[in-house]
Design goal:
Structural class: alpha/beta
Radius of gyration: 24 Å
Strand content: 15-25%
Bound molecules: flavin-adenine dinucleotide
Distance between the termini: 69 Å
Helix content: 25-40%
Shape: globular
């Protein structure tokens, strides 16, 4: 008789948990996954996918305007928010079914309920005790709303995807990628947007040129970006919210949207009882192989609070399956993880920022260009694209590539492959471009912008 009910019990059927469960089952493990909310997790339901669909929706307003420069006349425009959300919801429920089928076809048992850990080999679901040789904690993260008077009136990205109507005005609080993306979404759909960030410039951690270029482009579009400020309290009067800012001024708005970070979803999970070490904010501490302080408990994805990105959670899920069930101990490769802010315009980035490179390398070369995209020669739109390459002067190795402009994510992905292969600037230069594209600028940048000696 088997010693445990399952070889692997995964808590959370999000990006990481689904990948780990399916792959483990494909290697012959008996696997169950518990999911308390929605199959596919944050990315599919209230993250990357619905967000990108709303980004597409928001771009039509400028596309309609730009069409005139190409001879098109477009009639009266109107966005039907209810229809947009209904169509988005339909696609998400299709994806939920896809995830269910993928797991069922791999032989994974799906338990749609809240799970808690009772001891290192026991999970409790709806009062029933289930045992497993290994437990995988893949519970993701949850939006963090600061406790200020009136914060109960605010929404987060979770609610923004399901608003009954498009707000006429929204205040977005927070300077991370989610705040910048939703500022573009709401503005593109016709909402008046104010975005607040308590620091001097948003998108901390991104290259400074990207941060400054995006701020300038968003302001040109009419987004009211305000830095070094925050909300002190929110009061509700009638249907209106009044936000009092730290400097004492007030702003009236229909919605206040907090995008002020996310915290690991590890409360009421029983991790302490099992002896799993966590950081103060609830992040599960793991080693290079994603193993926690308890030998048979592993953890991946957002709840470890490192790189909160879907492809990272997926890569970690794969590594756990390889390590535990394919006799192939695997550490995920975190080198040159590319990412995109789907703001308007996009920010795409991979590798070191100029500031990081200056701190780590003796001499660096920086190549930079800024230009008006070809499309806007006819539209007349005042929008610029910025691209930048950071190079180690000694070895000529490319250390970072950064871009603000349309399709930045699509362009940067390929450069991440080149960088993981150790590409040098000379190899970028010897690569023939695709003309006419914006991407070709990455292989034709010849003028050094700055050099540190
Ligand atoms: C608005 C937004 C936009 C984003 N956009 C991008 C993007 O463009 N690109 C990108 O790479 N990343 C993006 N992300 C981040 C991405 O969604 C996450 O990094 C990714 O989903 C993390 O996967 P995960 O498996 O760690 O957790 P999740 O996908 O969050 O899955 C965790 C699952 O565990 C379940 N769960 C939690 N506790 C329990 C319990 N006790 N019992 C049972 N089930 C439980 C939850 O319900 C959830 O379904 C975005 C996130 C947000 C919020």
């Amino acid at each position: 008789m088997a010693q445990y009910d399952y070889d692997l019990f995964t808590i959370g059927a999000g990006s990481g948990g689904v990948r780990a469960s399916r792959m483990s089952a494909s290697y012959g493990a008996k696997v169950a996954v518990a999911e308390e909310r929605y199959l596919g997790g944050t990315c599919v339901n209230v993250g990357c996918i619905p967000k990108k669909l709303l980004v597409y929706a928001s771009h039509f307003s400028t596309d309609f305007q730009d069409a005139a420069g190409f001879g098109w006349s477009v009639g009266e425009r109107h966005v039907d928010w209810a229809k947009l959300i209904a169509n988005k919801n339909k696609e998400i429920s299709r994806l939920n079914d896809v995830y269910r089928k993928l797991m069922q076809d791999s032989g994974v048992t799906i338990i749609e309920d809240h799970a808690e850990i009772a001891d290192p080999h026991t999970i409790v679901v709806d009062g029933k005790r289930i045992t497993a040789k290994y437990i995988l904690v893949a519970v993701g993260s949850w939006p963090l709303v600061p406790e200020i008077p009136g914060s109960e009136h605010a929404i987060t990205s979770n609610e923004a995807f399901y608003l009954p109507s498009l707000p006429r005005k929204v205040i977005i609080v927070g300077g991370g990628f989610i705040g910048a993306e939703f500022a573009g979404i709401f503005h593109g759909l016709g909402t008046e947007v104010v975005q607040l960030y308590r620091g001097p410039l948003f998108l901390r951690g991104f290259d400074d040129d990207c941060r400054e270029t995006l701020a300038a482009e968003m302001r040109k579009k009419g987004i009211d970006l305000r830095f070094n400020t925050d909300i002190e309290r929110i009061e509700k009067a009638g249907g209106i919210l009044r936000a009092t800012l730290t400097e004492g001024t007030t702003l009236d708005t229909e919605q206040v949207f907090y995008a002020t970070g996310r915290e690991p979803n590890t409360r009421s999970l029983g991790l302490e009882k099992a002896g799993v070490r966590m950081r103060e904010n609830g992040a599960v501490v793991v080693d290079d192989y994603l193993k926690t302080s308890v030998d048979n408990i592993y953890s991946i994805g957002d709840c470890t609070d490192r790189l909160m990105l879907t492809p990272v959670a997926i890569a970690e899920g794969r590594a756990v399956a390889e390590t535990l069930f394919n006799n192939n101990p695997m550490k995920p490769n975190y080198m040159n993880v590319p990412s995109t802010v789907f703001s308007t315009p996009n920010v795409g980035t991979v590798g070191l920022t100029e500031a990081e490179a200056r701190a780590r390398y003796k001499n660096i070369d920086v190549y930079k260009t800024s230009f008006r995209p070809l499309k806007h020669t006819l539209t007349g739109r005042d929008e610029r694209t910025m691209m930048k390459i950071v190079v180690d002067h000694e070895t000529d190795k490319v250390l970072g590539c950064h871009m603000v402009g349309p399709d930045a994510g699509e362009i940067i992905q390929g450069l991440a492959v080149a960088m993981n292969c150790g590409a040098t600037k000379a190899q970028f230069d010897s690569t023939i471009g695709i003309h006419p594209t914006a991407a070709e600028e990455f292989v034709t940048m010849r003028t050094k912008a700055a050099r540190q000696t």
